Amino acid sequence: MTPLAQADSSDYGAACEESGDTRIWVSPLNPKPYSATKIMAVATDGAISDLSIVESDGRKIPLPSNSRGGPPWSLSSVVDNLADGDYRIEARRNGTLLACHPLVLGGRNAQEGQSLGWNLATEAFYSAWIEELFGAPVEENLSFPSLEPVLRDPERNFLYNHLGLNEDRNLPSTPDCADLPYTLRAYFAWKVGLPVGFRTCSRGSANSPPRCGSATVKTEFTHGIASQGNFRSVYGQLTNAVHSGSARTGLDDEATDLYPVPLNRESLWPGTVFADPYGHVLVLAQWVPQTAGRPGMLLAVDAQPDNSVTRKRFWEGTFLFANVNSAGPGFKVFRPLARSGSGALRTFSNGELVDNPSYAPFSMEQENLTPEDFYARMDKLINPKGLQPKQAFDTTLDALAEQVETRVTSVENGESYFRKGHGSFIAMPSGASIFETIGPWEDFATPSRDMRLIIAINVLNGLPNKIVRHPELFVLNGQSPQTLKAEIEDYQAQRLQERRIRYIRSDGSSWELSLADVLARKQAFEMAYNPNDCAEVRWGAKPGTDEYSTCRRHAPSEQHAKMEQYRPWFRDARRPTR
Hints:
Layout: E1 22-27, E2 37-43, E3 50-55, E4 60-63, E5 66-69, E6 73-79, E7 85-93, E8 96-105, H1 120-133, E9 143-144, H2 148-151, H3 180-192, E10 196-198, E11 216-218, H4 228-241, E12 258-260, E13 273-275, E14 281-288, E15 297-303, E16 309-313, E17 330-334, E18 337-339, E19 345-347, H5 371-382, H6 389-419, H7 440-444, H8 447-469, H9 481-498, E20 500-504, E21 510-514, H10 515-520, H11 535-538, H12 557-571
Antiparallel strand pairs: 1-2, 2-6, 3-4, 3-7, 5-6, 7-8, 9-16, 10-11, 12-17, 13-14, 13-17, 14-15, 15-16, 18-19, 20-21
Helix pairs in contact: 3-4, 6-8, 6-9, 8-9
């Protein structure tokens, strides 16, 4: 919290306004004296160097601040020791005033009653809010049982109790992967007073991506402070409409909730959505710049069918990209809403978004990229100076280990379900529905996660050859790509033995595996996603071994027959078309 100290003089009588590329946001909407008041300045044209409070007598109080991002750039602080009265908040860059915002404690704040729309300022605030919501040291394994504890954490959520109604108490928020970006967008719109839109879409077919109907535009949040009941109503309608096809619409389609953007740092802000061709969805959360001692990272969050929310890094094992007729995959942002001549809200067309300075530009750039080109482009964005081959391997190994650790939790969730006595077996759907269904199978089976694990193993095993195919992505230090390929193959054998994980067996005991063990069991993971099988089977233990000896549960034979029939999908790491 900020002490009232280090005051200096300031011209309090000068105009206090936000007219440029920087906006200042305050939460709660009507802050009270001697209570925590959160302040966030957000800029779209460069970093902000300092925040300060100016009292009515001209005293200037510098605020210790937390800096994030770029672009957009944000600076946030909390004060809790101000008496009632009028103040001004100033944001500066190297001494130059960027923005000034009036602050009233014990009265009505200027933000209340403002008519806001989705524009560059609100999109930048949304991005900065997402980055702070999921902020944590990059080495931390950030995971939550659902979105609820994230939104209910006032240290994370800048908009916690923003309306002053204790509106976050018992707030329902358990989205799955498809619902997560929409839930975040709707929550933000509710707190800030913005409209929100969504469409009912098909799931597509083998030859065409999903198609959507007209937009449902909800304006309940734009008519003053909206209650939790208003949010619950919109949230319920939204989650009933949205599914995995909603983000996979064709890149050139205009009747969509999301549209594609260029692959550059200026467009890929936190809050950007990544839709993979098979239905999984992630939300960008943070760019970590490359430094001399640390590789760059692009971090994102996703939700799972069991409602858990986890932060992940960008790499080929998590962000799946493929050229398929059944989807328009890639990075996308929400299509903004605007008022027509009659005053009704409508969505922007693609043409209106090509050169519109208020929004991320529409771009078909991703349509013509092969997967290899797509990943090479992203690697260059994340690590523009290139990586040492061993550094690249360690980064990829960390991502794989992160994925395996997440699977440990998923398998244990299935074991916990059976320990609680929920029945003998979970019904298994047929065909492609094993990836998309509802109920206990969706909650505890891991076909999508296991296919991603198989892909991740392929990526790690393919890294030595990538040095030869794309030497421009690596720092070679005068060595040939072929020489470095051989060095990394030797290094891989050593590092895979060093990294280890533990899972819980059927009798409650812990069993340790090296990542070398995990990679050696790749074939077993082609049939390890069924929660009716014991944990030992799901981790690839072989019958007759000590590891396998504690197994007490097996899926019915007819389910194993189905899994054998579907095994080629996993062996080839390609989900079936619908």
